[in-house]
Specification:
The complex is a heterodimer of chains A (273) and B (307).
Chain A: H1 7-33, H2 52-58, H3 66-94, H4 102-114, H5 117-131, H6 137-162, H7 167-174, H8 179-208, H9 223-233, H10 238-272
Helix pairs in contact in A: 2-10, 3-6, 3-8, 3-9, 4-6, 5-6, 6-8, 7-8, 8-10
Chain B: H1 2-15, H2 26-55, E1 59-60, E2 65-66, H3 72-79, H4 81-115, H5 119-130, H6 137-142, H7 145-148, H8 153-160, H9 175-199, H10 203-211, H11 216-227, H12 229-245, H13 248-253, H14 261-270, H15 274-296, H16 301-306
Helix pairs in contact in B: 2-15, 3-15, 4-9, 4-12, 9-12, 10-11, 12-15, 14-15
The chains are: A mainly alpha (273), B mainly alpha (307).
Chain lengths: 273, 307
């Protein structure tokens, strides 16, 4: 076979490079600007270098309390992540068989995913008001976020389960494993990289979510909502500093996950060998 | 570990426990497994949607709302000239962004699947595209401000290179910046599903098309694109609904010049005018539902995803 690259390769490679530049360029600019000197503004030029703006994040300001909202966001994201993993893994396994109502549930999940986010929050807050319930982080906001992370988790599980060879489960049953042992020692370990993917996906979706949370949060904001409020009132590089910090948090999580998944895969391939 | 699970199995055989001791039929087991998700979605998605459908017929005044069955809220939605203008403006944004992300997403997915030769490189490039998606949308939106502004990085660069004499004004707080931000936020929603579809195509089909004399262009249009239609439709649904449902990017990046359907709606919600807001919400949901159902007619998304 001809091993030369076709001209379309160079065309598409160029496009890919431009796209990556487009993707990362603006973000790199705000990371750089977050180290703006104390007298500098929100655009170039840089007036010296400082970490003043990072210090300002920690100071509970008039406008926003970033550290407290950061804590709330992490807590909520952890809870959303655990619930999404447990519920969508169970449902993903359930969808492998035909059952009455499967189509309906599938389309409800898709609808929940494509529904304009603010409307989901609006409906939930309306319900809480009419029932006379107080909205809060672990009630209405948690619920609103689950309508977003569960369909995502379910779709991911469809892809994960599609690659799963059921004969491993049959073999386990033939060897005398009961349902729990089969799940614990066979199904879950094989699906683990995908399950971790669902967990980390749900965590980051929750951690960055604002459209579904804004009407359902009650009185104490999560970090994205605090940032949202700050954008309207603040025009100093402190916004960029917050952006840098939240990006570092996301990247750390992604890095940790990748490391764990790669380790799992390596261990598995060593065991196979 | 291996040892332990081995003895487990052995014990069970010695116990002589029957293999299938659960008497439940298979579909009932599935029901139990999907029940938690079904309950959560019923309570937190279906019920609230039904609720604002009901409230959209309510009467209201400045102090509260009153159960009723009246169509006034809908009459108001359909007789306000702003409604049509906002829908057309959102639709225009959605179409431009859809076309742009489709072109970019398809080209990049094609590059990743057909042109990159090693799996490791493919993974690396795909991650490079995906990672920004896992970071804050708000931050990625405002990241464009210091880049596109009057004294922003892009203008400064062009001025330094003497390509322009005066800073370009149309870059920020305009339709242009809104579209750029949408493309930046949502192109991955195209790349993912399309790459997934492309990677399922049997390479032999493409070679067969070439052998039968098809040009590169003909192969693309008559073989690759039809086979990738699930990914194209799925990506299109995601991008379309994200743009239609947005209220933050338009508000932030148009400099107050454009409104979106949802940003108009959120103004009503803030004014506590729940019945007219609900009527608007119902109209929007119907609009999105028709769009999505129309796109889903092209392919059976469920069949492609679940099996």
């Amino acid at each position: 076979m001809d091993d030369r690259r076709p001209f379309t390769f160079y065309l598409l490679a160029g496009l890919m490079a431009l796209f990556l530049l487009f993707l990362y360029g603006p973000m790199v600019i705000i990371y750089v600007l977050s180290f703006q000197g104390p007298d500098g503004g929100v655009t170039f030029p840089m007036v010296g270098l400082s970490t003043k703006w990072f210090g300002d994040i920690l100071r509970p300001g008039q406008m926003a309390d970033i550290p407290a909202s950061f804590g709330r966001s992490l807590l909520l994201a952890a809870l959303v992540s655990v619930l999404t993993v447990v519920l969508s893994v169970a449902a993903g396994l359930g969808f492998r068989r035909r059952f009455p109502g499967a189509g309906l549930l599938f389309y409800v999940a898709i609808a929940s995913l494509v529904m304009p986010s603010l409307l989901v929050g609006f409906g939930i807050s309306l319900g809480f008001q009419m029932l006379g319930l107080e909205q809060g982080l672990f009630t209405s906001a948690l619920g609103a976020q689950l309508t977003w992370t569960l369909p995502f988790g379910l779709l991911t599980m469809f892809a994960v389960v599609a690659r799963f060879n059921r004969s491993y489960e049959e073999a386990a049953t033939d060897l005398g494993a009961n349902a729990w042992q089969r799940l614990r020692y066979v199904t879950v370990p094989i699906l683990l990289p995908g399950i971790i993917g669902v967990g980390i996906g749900a965590f980051t979706l929750s951690y960055d979510e604002y459209a579904r949370t804004t009407l359902t949060i009650g009185s104490h904001n999560t970090l994205p909502l605090e940032i949202y409020a700050l954008i309207a009132s603040d025009s100093t590089p402190v916004l960029f500093a917050i952006g840098t910090v939240t990006t570092v948090v996301s990247f750390t999580l992604i890095g940790l996950t990748l490391a764990v998944v790669l380790r799992l895969q390596r261990r598995r391939s060593m065991r196979m060998a | 570990m291996m040892q332990a699970s081995g003895t487990h199995a052995l014990e069970l055989v010695v116990d002589g426990r029957p293999r299938a001791r659960v008497g439940l039929p298979a579909w009932a087991v599935s029901w139990l497994q999907v029940a938690p998700v079904a309950v959560v979605l019923a309570v937190l998605f279906v019920a609230p949607t039904v609720l604002f459908l009901v409230v959209s017929f309510f009467d209201y005044d400045r102090v509260g709302m009153y159960p009723a069955f009246m169509l006034d809220n809908y009459v108001e939605v359909f007789t306000t000239p702003a409604t049509l203008r906002i829908y057309l403006s959102s639709l225009r944004f959605a179409l431009i962004v859809w076309a742009t992300t489709l072109f970019l997403g398809f080209s990049i997915a094609q590059f990743l699947v057909f042109h990159v030769r090693t799996a490791r490189m493919r993974m690396l490039l795909f991650l490079a595209c995906a990672i920004p998606f896992w970071t804050s949308g708000i931050i990625r939106t405002i990241a464009w401000i210091p880049f596109l502004g009057r004294n922003g990085a892009f203008n400064t660069m062009l001025l330094d290179l003497r390509i322009i004499d005066t800073p370009l004004e149309f870059l920020l707080f305009s339709d242009f910046s809104v579209i750029i931000t949408y493309v930046h936020l949502y192109t991955l929603l195209m790349i993912g599903p399309i790459a997934n579809s492309l990677s399922k195509i049997d390479k032999a089909l493409i070679e067969a098309a070439r052998d039968a004399g098809a040009s590169r262009f003909q192969t693309l249009f008559w073989v690759i694109i039809p086979l990738a239609r699930t990914g194209i439709v799925l990506g299109s649904i995601l991008v379309f609904t994200q743009v239609i449902g947005d209220y933050f990017v338009v508000k932030r990046m148009s400099g107050g010049q454009s409104a979106s359907i949802v940003s108009a709606l959120s103004t009503e919600i803030q004014a506590m005018q729940f019945p007219p807001a609900s009527a608007n919400a119902v109209v929007l949901v119907a609009f999105v539902a028709v769009l999505v159902a129309g796109m889903m007619r092209i392919v059976d998304v469920r069949k492609e995803l679940v099996s």
